[in-house]
Design a protein that fits this description.
By secondary structure, this protein is mainly alpha-helical. It is about 85% helix and about 0% strand. α1 runs antiparallel to α3 (about 80-105). The termini are far apart.
Length: about 120
């Protein structure tokens, strides 16, 4: 029975010593964790911006091809590109929504603003 009392006393002493540190930890942890979260979000922003640039380039290329087909009298073949253009617009809208979700998730924790993803 003496061993159980020692264990309880040791646990109580350990709690008494670590409780002030544990209570102060969340504030310190949030400050230390914020740069890591911001770095991850900045990397996601960069990937989303790069993907948006690729989507915009593909959209411009498909639009130019559609215009070229219309000029050369192959308008019916150019109409097939409408599905591709609609898909690229949907990808752009999904990227904008994803960036908005990232920004909402870290609002108030990261000072960097989200990138502006202009439309077509």
């Amino acid at each position: 029975m003496g061993t159980a009392r020692r264990r309880v006393a040791a646990a109580a002493a350990l709690v008494a010593l670590t409780l002030p540190v544990a209570l102060g930890a969340p504030a310190g942890a949030a400050v230390r964790g914020a740069p890591a979260i911001c770095a991850r979000v900045q990397a996601r922003y960069a990937r989303a911006a790069a993907a948006n640039t690729r989507v915009k380039d593909a959209f411009a290329k498909a639009s130019a091809l559609q215009a070229e087909l219309a000029r050369t009298g192959r308008a019916r073949l150019g109409q097939r590109l409408n599905a591709r253009l609609a898909y690229l617009q949907a990808v752009h809208a999904a990227l904008v929504a994803r960036v908005a979700a990232f920004a909402a998730r870290v609002q108030g924790r990261c000072p960097a603003p989200p990138p502006n993803l202009p439309g077509f």
